[in-house]
């Protein structure tokens, strides 16, 4: 139980994805932590608290990354209107700017536009490295090219993105 508690305390410090309410997010993390603990203890019946905590944190971090990747692709930043406390609609960007920094929103929109202008190969490379969290070696193996070629292609893609964002 200490492993679950320690992992959840750490995970509570992570920024919640925008498509989750605080209550739903905490409930989902708790359920996922319990499932990961059961799986860990099934695979390693004599696991100590540190091993259990690391196992749970790995599962929670995978889930957190998947949810942020989903939110980045699918959750719209602009909706017609959002209610205020008084029940009247408010300006969406004004609402979002209170939760997120306005500059991050503008940067995110610009980045989405720049990524859309990249070639399919370049978008695939960015997706694997930054959204899926794969290493350069894993991407190289998957594409059947050398790690150095992946690094060179990544540098070229980042240079293109910088030029588009300037």
TrEMBL record:
Top-rank lineage group of the source organism: Bacteria
Family annotation (InterPro entries): RNA_pol_sigma-70_dom, RNA_pol_sigma70_r4, RNA_pol_sigma_r3/r4-like, WH-like_DNA-bd_sf
Alphabetical keyword list: DNA-binding, Sigma factor, Transcription, Transcription regulation
GO biological process entries: DNA-templated transcription initiation
Domain RNA polymerase sigma-70 region: 114-163
GO molecular function annotations of the record: DNA binding; sigma factor activity
Keyword Protein biosynthesis: no
Keyword Oxidoreductase: no
Name under which the protein is recorded: RNA polymerase sigma-F factor
């Amino acid at each position: 139980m200490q492993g679950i508690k320690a992992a959840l305390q750490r995970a509570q410090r992570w920024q919640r994805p925008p498509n989750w309410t605080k209550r739903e997010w905490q409930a989902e993390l708790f359920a996922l932590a319990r499932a990961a603990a059961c799986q860990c203890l099934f695979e390693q019946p004599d696991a100590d608290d540190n091993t259990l905590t690391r196992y749970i944190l790995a599962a929670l971090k995978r889930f957190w990354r998947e949810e942020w990747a989903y939110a980045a692709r699918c959750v719209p930043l602009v909706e017609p209107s959002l209610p205020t406390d008084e029940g009247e609609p408010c300006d969406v960007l004004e609402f979002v700017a209170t939760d997120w920094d306005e500059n991050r929103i503008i940067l995110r929109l610009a980045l989405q536009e720049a990524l859309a202008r990249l070639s399919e190969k370049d978008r695939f490379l960015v997706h694997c490295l930054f959204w899926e969290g794969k290493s350069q070696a894993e991407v190289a193996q998957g594409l059947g090219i050398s790690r150095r070629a992946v690094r060179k292609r990544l540098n070229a893609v980042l240079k293109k993105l910088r030029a588009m964002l300037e």
